[in-house]
Specification:
Elements: H1 24-27, H2 35-56, H3 61-78, H4 82-95, H5 100-113, H6 116-129, H7 133-151, H8 154-172, H9 178-191
Helix pairs in contact: 3-4, 4-5, 5-6, 6-7, 7-8, 8-9
C-alpha cells in the first residue's frame, strides 16, 4: 500500500473526499503525504476552508496553539509556502506572545527568506522577555552577528553588541570576565 501513495489521485469532479486510514501517523498528518497531488487544487481549497472552520470551533487555547504550530511546519517544510507559515506562527503569538517555539521558527523563517530586519526584531522581542540575563545577552549577540554578517549593517550590529555587553556587566559587575572580554572583542571587530 505504501508504494501506491505517490500514484493516488482524487477525482477532479469530486466535491468531498474522505481519507480513511488505520495509520495514525497519516491521520495526524505526521507523514509526508502529498495531499495537494492527491486532492487536486479545488479540493485542497475546500480542505483549507474546512480546516479553518474546524479550528474556529476550538476553545482550548493550547490546542489552537498546537494546531497553528503544526500548520506552520506543514506550510513551510512540505508546501514551501512561507507566507502561510508566517501567518500561522503569528497566530500562535496572538495567543502566547512568549511562545519560544513560534519565536524560534519565525526567526528561522525570516533568516531563510533574508528578512534580516524582521529576524533581528524577533530576536529583540525574545531578549526583552527573557528572564535569564545570559539568554538575553546571547540573543543580543546573535542580533549583532546577524546584522554584521548578513545585513551588512555595522551601526546596528554595534548597537546590539553594546546591549549584550551592558546586559552582562549589569549582572556580573566584572569587566575582566571572559564573556565580557569576548563581547568587547566582538565590538572591536565591528568597529575596525
Amino acid at each position: 500500500a505504501k508504494a501506491a501513495w505517490p500514484n493516488l489521485r482524487g477525482s477532479q469532479n469530486a466535491n468531498l473526499v474522505f481519507l480513511i486510514t488505520t495509520d495514525h501517523g497519516l491521520a495526524g498528518l505526521e507523514k509526508n503525504v502529498n495531499l495537494p497531488m492527491l486532492l487536486g487544487d479545488e479540493l485542497m481549497n475546500n480542505l483549507d476552508v474546512a480546516t479553518h472552520d474546524a479550528i474556529g470551533h476550538l476553545s482550548d487555547e493550547a490546542r489552537i496553539v498546537r494546531y497553528h504550530l503544526r500548520a506552520a511546519e506543514l506550510a513551510w517544510q512540505h508546501l514551501q509556502d512561507e507566507r502561510e507559515a508566517e501567518t500561522h506562527l503569528r497566530r500562535v503569538l496572538e495567543y502566547d506572545v512568549q511562545n519560544l517555539e513560534a519565536l524560534e521558527k519565525l526567526t528561522g523563517l525570516y533568516n531563510e527568506l533574508g528578512r534580516w530586519g524582521d529576524a533581528v526584531r524577533i530576536l529583540g522581542e525574545r531578549a526583552s522577555t527573557a528572564e535569564d540575563p545570559e539568554i538575553r545577552r546571547e540573543l543580543y549577540r546573535s542580533a549583532a552577528r546577524l546584522l554584521d554578517d548578513k545585513a551588512g549593517d555595522l551601526e546596528g550590529a554595534i548597537e546590539w553588541a553594546e546591549r549584550a555587553l551592558a546586559t552582562f556587566e549589569a549582572v556580573h559587575k566584572r569587566a575582566d570576565h571572559p564573556e565580557a572580554v569576548s563581547t568587547r572583542t566582538l565590538l572591536l571587530e565591528l568597529r575596525a
